[in-house]
Specification:
The protein is an all-alpha fold and about 140 residues long. Helices cover about 85% and strands about 0% of the residues. The protein has 5 helices and no strands.
Length: about 140
Amino acid sequence: MKLFGTIILAGLVSMLVGGVATLVLSALAACVSGGCGLGDTQQLALMPFYALLGMGVFGVAATRSRWREAMFYSVRLLLLIPVVLIIVGLAADASPGAEKKFVLTKALQLALPFWAVVVSLWWMVRRFLSGREKAAA
């Protein structure tokens, strides 16, 4: 039961970390279009989905008997999702006759908060599981 509570608390904290990362990135990035504020609210609205995805994946990984390996593979998988999407976007943009719609800065503004949520959630759950393992030994 403590694991469930820890995952929920880690999810809430990671949403805050992702929100801060979104606000910092939006303040640092130059506003090219007139609708900058709307983009920030859309990115902030994605934080609960990012956290729920991470909570589900890390919750399943934490219940495994070999949790260290499961957590390692889970964080690698989650961190690779935006990388693959960025590569696919760049490839689609480079195809002949394609209209240039993919903007790398926008993709990074979406990917960096996702990475912040995933890494903070992974770190908190891993720290709890390591402490529990040390207490049991």
